[in-house]
Specification:
By secondary structure, this protein is of the alpha+beta class. The chain has three domains: about 240 residues, no CATH class; about 140 residues, no CATH class; about 80 residues, no CATH class. Helix content is about 45%, strand content about 15%. The strands form three sheets. Strands 8-9-11-12-7-13 form a six-stranded antiparallel beta sheet. Helix 2 packs across helix 3 and helix 2 crosses helix 9.
C-alpha cells in the first residue's frame, strides 16, 4: 500500500456477495496455473513461499481486479459511487488512479535511501521517472527489475502496494512473453478484420492490440511467471550450471602421486621446473598455466552457465596447481578433462620417482556443504580491519574486471567488452552486462565489501556512461 492512502474500505468491499466469487476467479487466474503445475494447493502456498509472498500475489490480483472491466462492472467505480463520500480526497484520487493503472515491468536506478528512486518502463519505453516511496528504497538495489504499477496521485508519482521482484533472466522472459502476446493479438485482429471483408486500418488495429491494451489484460502473466519461478526454486533447489574456461562442468579433482623415496625430492623439483607450462611459486608449489591464449571455440560454453576462472597477475589462465609434500606430489584441477591432461603431463616427467596416482573427487555441492567447516578452521586467525578488507577486495575486483574488459565474455557472444562496445548492437549487450554485474554485486549484505564496489570506471572506460540511468 502506498503511504498515506488506506483502501481498507475497498478491500472489505471485495468480500461482498456480489464481488467475492468474481475476485476468487481473478485470484485463481493469477496463481492457479502455477500451483496446479507444481502440484501445490492454495492452502500450502504460504508454507512454501511465505506469508509475504502470498500477500504480494493477493495484492497483484486485487489491483488487477480493481483496474479491469467496464465501468458498469468494476468494483472501484461501484465502491466510489456508493461509499466514496466516506473517503478522503486523497484516497478517492488513489482509487481512481488504481482503476486506470496497468502493471508493467520497470528497471530501478538512482536510489535515494528513505526518499525515492527512478524507474524506466522496460515495455512501454520512455524516459525514467522518479517515484517517491520510502520503504521500498530499503530493499531495492541498482538495476533491480520489478513488476509494479506506477501512479500519479495529486501530483505525486508513487508505486502501488503490489510489487514483484524479477531477476534479470526472469525479466527477459516476461519481456519476450509480452512481445509474443502483442504479435499474436495483432495477427488475430487482422485475421478477424479480413474475415469480415474490411480493410485493416492501422489505427483501428492498434487500438485493440497495442502495448497499453495488452498490458491491461496481462497483469496475471507477471504473477504466473513470478510464482512459477519461486515454486521451481523452492521445490527443486539447484545450483546454477558452472563451468571452467574450457566449457567443462566444474568438478574438483585432486590426484595424489605417492613419492617412492624422500631421496627423490630434488629430482622431482627439477622435473617440475623443466615443464614449460608450470610456473614456480616456491620450492613446493607450481601453477599449471594454459600454454597460449586460445581463441574461444563457439558453442563450447553452455548458455546461462557461470564460468569459474583463475588467472595470474599477467592474465595467464591457471589450469591447476601442483604441490609437493613429504609423501606425495599433488595435482589439483577443476574438471575431469583437466585431470586427464594433467596426469598425461606429469607421469612421463616423474617416471620412476612416483607411483600411480590416487584420485580424490568433490562436486561443487559437496564443496559448498563442506565450506562452513573449512571456514570454522580459519576463524582463529585475526581478520583484517573492515576498511583494509574493503580496499583489498575492491582492488582485487578492479584487477579482475580490468582483465575481463579484454577477454571473451559469453554474454557478449564471446566478444571482449571493449570490442563489443564498438557497435550499436554490441553496446546494448555491454550495458545489459554491466547492469547485471552491478545489480549482482549490490545484492550482497551491506557490510560485505562487494556491495559497495563502484563500477563507474567500467561504464566510462567502455564509453557507455550515458546509458547508466
Amino acid at each position: 500500500m502506498a503511504a498515506g492512502h488506506s483502501i481498507e474500505g475497498l478491500i472489505k468491499w471485495v468480500r461482498r456477495d456480489d464481488w467475492r466469487d468474481r475476485f476468487e476467479d481473478a485470484f485463481d487466474r493469477h496463481v492457479g496455473a502455477a500451483c496446479r503445475g507444481a502440484g501445490v494447493g492454495l492452502g500450502e502456498l504460504a508454507e512454501i513461499i511465505g506469508d509475504h509472498g502470498v500477500s504480494n500475489l493477493w495484492g497483484c490480483a486485487f489491483e488487477d481486479f480493481v483496474s479491469s472491466g467496464p465501468d458498469d462492472a468494476n468494483i472501484a467505480v461501484d465502491y466510489l459511487k456508493r461509499r466514496g463520500w466516506k473517503e478522503s480526497a486523497g484516497t478517492r484520487a488513489y482509487i481512481d488512479a488504481l482503476r486506470r493503472s496497468k502493471m508493467s515491468l520497470y528497471e530501478v536506478s538512482n536510489i535515494v535511501a528513505g526518499e525515492s528512486f527512478m524507474v524506466r518502463d522496460m515495455i512501454r519505453g520512455g524516459e525514467p521517472v522518479r517515484v517517491f516511496e520510502r520503504s521500498a528504497t530499503r530493499s531495492l538495489k541498482q538495476w533491480d527489475r520489478i513488476a509494479a504499477r506506477i501512479v500519479t496521485v495529486l501530483g505525486k508519482t508513487q508505486i502501488t502496494g503490489a510489487l514483484l521482484a524479477f531477476d534479470h533472466q526472469l525479466a527477459d522472459e516476461a519481456l519476450a512473453s509480452i512481445e509474443r502476446v502483442c504479435k499474436k493479438a495483432r495477427a488475430e485482429a487482422l485475421k478477424l478484420v479480413r474475415s469480415l471483408g474490411r480493410a485493416a486500418e492501422g489505427e483501428e488495429i492498434a487500438s485493440v492490440t497495442g502495448v497499453e491494451e495488452v498490458l491491461a489484460r496481462s497483469a496475471f502473466m507477471f504473477s504466473a511467471l513470478w510464482l512459477n519461478d519461486v515454486l521451481r526454486g523452492a521445490l527443486n533447489p539447484s545450483l546454477p550450471a558452472m563451468q571452467n574456461t574450457d566449457g567443462e562442468s566444474l568438478e574438483f579433482i585432486t590426484l595424489h602421486f605417492p613419492i617412492l623415496s624422500n631421496k627423490n625430492l630434488a629430482a622431482i623439483r627439477a622435473a617440475l621446473d623443466a615443464l614449460p607450462t608450470l610456473r614456480k611459486e616456491n620450492d613446493t608449489f607450481w601453477n599449471w598455466l594454459e600454454a597460449a591464449k586460445k581463441a574461444p571455440k563457439p558453442g563450447r560454453k553452455k548458455a546461462g552457465a557461470q564460468t569459474f576462472s583463475t588467472r595470474m597477475d599477467d592474465g595467464a589462465t591457471v589450469l591447476g596447481n601442483v604441490e609437493i609434500s613429504d609423501k606425495a606430489v599433488t595435482l589439483s584441477v577443476n574438471s575431469q578433462a583437466r585431470s586427464e591432461r594433467g596426469r598425461a603431463m606429469l607421469e612421463p616427467a616423474l617416471a620412476g620417482l612416483v607411483r600411480a596416482p590416487l584420485a580424490e573427487r568433490q562436486t561443487v555441492e559437496q564443496m559448498m556443504a563442506a565450506s562452513p567447516r573449512r571456514l570454522g578452521k580459519t576463524l582463529d586467525s585475526p581478520p583484517l580491519p573492515p576498511d583494509e578488507l574493503k580496499k583489498v577486495v575492491h582492488q582485487g575486483l578492479t584487477d579482475h574486471y580490468r582483465r575481463t574488459l579484454d577477454e571473451p565474455v559469453p554474454a557478449l557472444g564471446n566478444r571482449a567488452p571493449r570490442q563489443a562496445a564498438k557497435t550499436a548492437k554490441g553496446r546494448d549487450k555491454v550495458v545489459a552486462w554491466l547492469k547485471l554485474l552491478e545489480n549482482s554485486s549490490g545484492r550482497h549484505e551491506p557490510d560485505d565489501p562487494m556491495a559497495s564496489y563502484d563500477f563507474t570506471w567500467m561504464w566510462e572506460e567502455l564509453g557507455v556512461a550515458e546509458h547508466r540511468q
